[in-house]
Amino acid sequence: MSEVDLITEQRGANGEVISFVDHDDQILPLNLEKPKSFRKFRKFYNIFEEVIRPRGYPDSVSEDYLKYQIWNTLQSFCNTVSASFKTRTVLKSVGVGDSNANALSAAIIWILRDGTGMIGRILFAWWKGRNFIYNLLGVYSFLKEVILPNGYPDSVSKDYLEYQIWDTCQAFCSTIIGAFKTRAVLKGVGVGDSTASALSAAITWILRDGTGMFGRILFAWWKGSGLDCDCKKWRYFADILNDAAMLVELCLPFYASISMQVLCVTSTMYAIVGISGGATRASITHHQAIRDNMAEISAKDGTQETIVNLIGSFGSIFLLNYFSSSRAEWILIISLMVLHLYTNFLAVKALIFNTFNRERLALVLKSYFTIGSVLNPAKVNVNESVLLGFGLNGLKRMCGFDIVLGESIKKSLNDYAAADIKLLQSVYKDKKYMLLVNGTKKKIYVCLEKGETAADVIAGYFHAVCLGIATSIYNSLDLDIYARRQLHHPTPITRLYTYMKSYEKSHNHFRNLPPNYLMDFNEFVKQEHSMFFTALDIQGWNIDSHSLAVGEFRIDWKSSQSKKTI
Fold it and tell me: Which GO terms describe its cellular component (predicted)?
């Protein structure tokens, strides 16, 4: 019995390579027969790798990444240990365990401490690398120098100003709420309570931070690689969760006996906020930096927020003294939270991304197939949802299948014979992707070759949608997209339906489109692909990058063909 290599699959650059071979027209994995203990070790190693390394490591990072991370980890460890001693000293100094102290004065000290740091941050951002005399020319020049990126407005995206206005408003609301929260937390850990001790308060503080770190690790492992894909949704989710955490901490004085448990829960919530908010902020900054000035825009964004926080901090000192009534205080806090969430909503809705994530691409494809035109980025971004779990995230109702990018092909090969794979090798020999249809799970796997570009990924996704619609038509399955077609002028969906009429199905059960049909079908897709990508270019879409969720698995189906040719 002879065995012929068909496809090899590898996860990442250093992952295990699995060869799938033709064994009497059956597709079998060649090198999965590892000891059980080895497979368990490999599983735990993969989990550990996912927690601490970026997806696609080492190909997805610079050459100095590992060395930098080693030294950065060591300094972080030293800093954490020294900070634990500092925490006890600070808590003792603001009145933990002192019956003469009160939470209001401690909160004001805390706010003034933060405010002084904000002033230093603003002045340093203004002064560093600038001519001092030049910056004394006037208040306007000073503010422009501090707040706006160099070359504004030509150096930033068109949505920059509107986004920053609403982002500034939400930051102001958050700062004032944070001041009331600080007072509640300090009171909850024992400021003004003679029975409390600085040591126990410090331990509570450290446990709170430790729980947050643990939550940060788990969340980064669970969702870290997907935050870019739904940037707006995760940004708004972070703000909602942040307000929820502050609301819980504002109630801390009522549950002082379980302050440690409450602070651990809120610390985990803040950890998720930090990861999702920080990652999405980086994506937004990258989008706004149209002149490769990402570092400057990030710095100026930080300065803008610092100025707003500074104003809010000093304003909150007045408010903390003014609101003596608990009822009036809660009315103010709830009002600020509503305003905070509303301005955040307006901020993320102001963003106009011209690159594709799953929902934006789905909206464009839906428009293209039903009416024959591509929507521009402004219209698509208006229709994009900013709430997790909502919006047009998938295309199953449109094409009958879920589209999966860059995932393992082990299970999907069960629907194919070796002869089918050999035909598919010829069909996709000049492409950077191969499509495999799993009729049982209603999934189409876009299997990517190593070295694919963003345009290749988008092309593979478009081809998969066409194949999904064609397969559904071939099996006489009803689709929403076909019901919404335009009857009076030709569109891609009507052209596809007319084209598929030439293929007759001789059985009643579900079947994939036969591989020998795919060569002709490829010619149809090639024409549609050309028209679709031309329309994308005209409407201003950027196909040189994307935010689609792509797995780590890459396959090679061309090497076996080369060996046969030789």
Answer: membrane
